[in-house]
Every structure is written in C-alpha cells, then in structure tokens.
Design a protein that fits this description.
- The protein is of the alpha/beta class.
- The protein has two domains: 127 residues, Urease, subunit C, domain 1; 298 residues, Metal-dependent hydrolases (TIM Barrel, Alpha-Beta Barrel).
- The protein contains 16 helices and 16 strands.
- Strands 5, 6, 7, 8, 9, 10, 11, 12 and 13 form a nine-stranded parallel sheet that branches. It has a seven-stranded mixed sheet with strand order 3-2-1-4-14-15-16.
- A hairpin with a 5-residue loop joins strand 2 and strand 3.
- The C terminus is likely disordered.
- The chain binds zinc ion.
- Zinc ion binds next to strand 5.
- Zinc ion (ZN) binds next to strand 5.
Amino acid sequence: MRPEKTLTNLQGWRAGLLWFTQAEQPQARHETDGLLVTAREADGIVRIQALGPYRELAAQYPDLPVTHWPGLCIAPGFVDLHIHYPQTDVIGSPAEGLLPWLEHYTFPHEKHFSQPAYAHEVTAFFMDELMRHGVTTALCFATAHPESVDVFMAEAQKRHLRMVTGKVLQDRHSPDGLRDTDTALSLRQTEDLIRRWHGVDRLGYAITPRFAPTSTPKQLHGAGEIAQQFPDVWIQSHVAENLDEIRWVLELFPEARSYLDVYDRANLLRQRSVYAHCIYLDDTDRRRMAEVGATAAVSPTSNLFLGSGFFNYAASDAAGLRYGLASDVGGGTSFSPFHTMHAAYTVARQSVGHPGISLAPEHLWWQHTAGAAAAMDLSGQVGNLLPGCEADFVVLNPKATPLLARRTAQTETLAEWLFAMIVLGDERLIAHTVVQGQTVNIASQVSSFSP
Ligand SMILES: [Zn+2]
C-alpha cells in the first residue's frame, strides 16, 4: 500500500492478517496469506510500512528478511482503555458491590504503593500479564503516591511500550496512607509528573481524579486548571457506575445537574478525557460528552462482577458518544480481551429498558483495538495495522485448543471466525506479542511473588 522508502531495519512478517480498513470504522479485513512490512523510522519508532497479500507484496521487497508463521494470524495489539495496575492482586476479591469493595480490598492494598520496590514488583508482573494477553497499550490508574507513577513509567519505557498513567488524586473520603493530605501539593506533584514523563518516548500522562466523591471541589478545579495548561495530556476518571455512588455524588455536589456535570464544571470534560463505566448517564450527559470529544471506557466484566449495571450501547450510538473496551482490573475479572469482548456482547444483549442488541464480532474486536485507540485520540498510532501505525501486534493461533481448532475450522465467514475466538478464546490464543518489532517472550513468565 505504500512504496518502499529509504529506511533501516526493514522487516517482513508473513502470516494471516486481520485489520480495520479505516481507523475509525469497524470494518475488518482478513487476508489468509499476508505480508506486513515494518521499519524503524527517523524518530526511533518502528512503524508499519505496508501490508497486503504476500503474493502481491513480496516482489516489491526482494531482500526483505521475513519471519514466517504459517497457520497463524497477525492482528492489532489490544488497547485497554481503563485498568488499575495496583489492583492486580485485588482481582477476584468478593464484596457487596463497589463501595464495600473499595473499602475492604482496594484501598488497604493500594497503600503499599508508596514503597517503590513493592510497586516495581507489581508493575513488572502486570506488564508481563498484559503481554501474555496481547494488550500492548493501556490507559492505567496508578495510586495516590507519585512513586507509583515513576516506577510504572520507567518499566514501560524500558519495554518500549506506549502506556499512559497518572497519580490518583483523592483528598477526602479516603483512608490515611492514600489520602492527599495537602491538596496544593497533590496538584504540584501532578504537574511535576507531567513534566517528567508526558511525551517522553512512548509515554503519556493522565490527570487522574479517582472519582468525584474522593476529591474536594478545590482538587477537582485544580486538576481542571492543569488540564487547560496541558491540552494534550489525558484525563481519566470514573462516572455513573453505581446507584449508591450517584446518590452520594449528588449529596456532595448539590449544585451539579448530574454526576457527569461535576466533572464538566471543573473543566475535566474534553478531548482526551476517558471516563470509565458511563452506565447511568442520561441523554444530556451523553450528548455533552460527544460534543466535547470525551469518551467512555466500557468495562463489562467489572460491571457484571460488581453488579453495577449495563452500558447502554443504543443510547450511546444515538448520542454519538464514542467508546471502547476496558478490563477495569481489579474490579474486572480478567486481563483477557477475549473475555472482555464476550462480556460486552452479553451486556449489549441484556440492556435494560430497551431491546437488547447483538453487537457484530467485528465491532466487538474494533472496540478493543482501533476503536479504543480512537477513544484515546490515538487513531493511526496504535490499535491497527494500517501503514503509519506503530508496530505493536499480536499473533493469533486459532488452533490453540482442541475446541478452538475444531470450531474455527468450521466457520464460513469472517464474522463467524472472529466470534468463535471471542467466545472461546483466552491467552492461549496469543501465540506471540510483538512490541516495536520485537517478539516479547511470553512463555517463560512465572511469578515468584510470595505474599
Ligand atoms: Zn476503575
């Protein structure tokens, strides 16, 4: 698709290819014997130069070194729009819904992340786990401790990953050891971290108020001022996840029209702001998010696990609200994009108050790759295989288990093939994860952690 340029480190990858023909549309294309060509460009980033059928493209690159994976399929690396790395060890903790879960499991655990050595051990395990599941970019919460950001960023930089994270802002209704005891200091720490990490290599910073109830109006407005000062940093938070939470927000912020409006009044709603859950929005909220370019991180395994509710796809589409998929580990129950896509299908079928819909398999896959990248304002950079995209991809083995092999062999359409993998798949489907043209060794990773 793109003529050969004078580039170093040209590399070919021959296998099946799965990609989206436009950055912002869920039209998938599958080539059974394809060639992907990558090269390191002048800025040091390895990008995709060309892709297409092997028989057509190979002749244009006569001396190309080619890695050949017969029977496997190259697909975009998955993008996780909302995940908490410090909750890696909270996954699968039982609780009576969101607020008790935070109080009994999450908050006590997050206190440990003031210790860099502890944070580093969890970060390394977390990134290994993302790689095993084929997730190559994530918009990630750290904790209230600036050290938790430094450790995460340094590890992502070492691995050449495109990752975004931020120090959590929470200066009230939080336990000692997690609460920002000095609001002005918490905002200065945020600015310092932006200057230290945002835009360094492939790293990005996200201004990260935990959620409205755990920040004073002063902290929220301070965060909004920083957001105006740094228009290309991300903003991430939670909104409208749970009915008890919403009642609490409206008591704390009686002037706000809605939970979402609390963030809007603090100038925290804009392009590059990503809000997890967005279950109990009304149409005014949805239209407002669409109007300013804010997006939703749909977290279906978390919403099902905590009994929070169901994201309303039909109303979101009608309002033009953009969204993508997220694991929300540790409220979510799996790092696996396959489990998340499967849960998203289930949630859309269950929508309350209107007829359920059946999301197309291509659309589910898009929500966790190119669609999630678009929701992060990273179209054309990650989440797809089009020329110009950065060379982060997965290599799928559709025969990874006896049942997958049997089922995928019987499918007749691309939609059937993708859906069989969505419903039956897990990390065994990921034969390789490739980051920046380097195959990550995901087979040898066994944690030695002992609590
Ligand atoms: Zn979350």
